[in-house]
Amino acid sequence: MPRFPHEQYLHGEIVDFAELASEGDLAFCENKEGHIHHVGLIIGEKKVIHVYGCVRIDKFDHHGFYNSDLQKYTHKLRIIKKVS
Q1: CB 68, CB 74: distance < 8 Å
Q2: What are the respective helix, strand and coil percentages of the chain, to the nearest 5?
Q3: pLDDT of 52
Q4: Average confidence (pLDDT) over 41-52
């Protein structure tokens, strides 16, 4: 697997809906310009582990990653992929 999210994004099969994501799938997020810049590993129960200043476990849905401490979305979801 490549190092950077924008390269990792090129691998795997698309998961059509966030509700169909399963443990081990990768959730890719985009910046304001629409470029892939962040990735998280889905760990189940609508949660994702990712590094955002520190290692975090946040909730996710079709909008993105939701930080309950800040009570806002910190990352906009672009696509979920299943990689093997």
Answers
A1: no
A2: 10, 50, 40
A3: 81
A4: 94
Residue extents of the structural domains in the chain: 5-82
48 contacts 55 by C-beta, under 8 angstroms: no
d(CA 31, CA 34): 5
- Model confidence pLDDT, tens digit, residues 54-76: 999 999 999 999 999 999 999 99
Q: What CATH topology corresponds to 5-82?
A: endopeptidase fold (from Nostoc punctiforme) (3.90.1720)
Rg of the chain over CA atoms, in angstroms? 12
Are 67 and 58 in contact by the 8 Å Cβ rule? The answer is yes
Q: Which two tokens stand for residue 63?
A: 């909008």
DSSP lists the bridge partners of residue 82 as 13
